[in-house]
Amino acid sequence: MNIQCPNCQSIRITTKDEGKKVGGVIGAIGGGIHGISGALKGSQVGRAVGSIAGPAGGAVGSVAGAILGCLIGAISGGVAGAKLGEIVDQRILDNYLCQSCGHSFSIICHAGHSEPKIVGANFFNLTD
Description:
This protein is mainly alpha-helical. It contains two helices and five strands. Helix 1 runs antiparallel to helix 2 (55-91).
């Protein structure tokens, strides 16, 4: 499926993915902050498991559990934020950018915007 620019009819189109990038960063920060509470629980579990190896094992286990809890929170938050940002890109923002004329547009037409042409797409009538 090739998308044509509604301004100059070029097929040199790229996506900006601004919502996906911002959503991923915000999600990672939020997930990391939320992961801190998980890190506290993880450090308690790590301390308990590490205490089998003695006092040094408890300290190392505590730090390792805290780091893993924070990382897991940041990763899961980043993925969720990127998915939400991708939806915002597709439905709200003008995510497509023409590399020939610099025009930004969306596949979903908004009031006041010209409709982009989709070249080579097959549309099926399912009511027949």
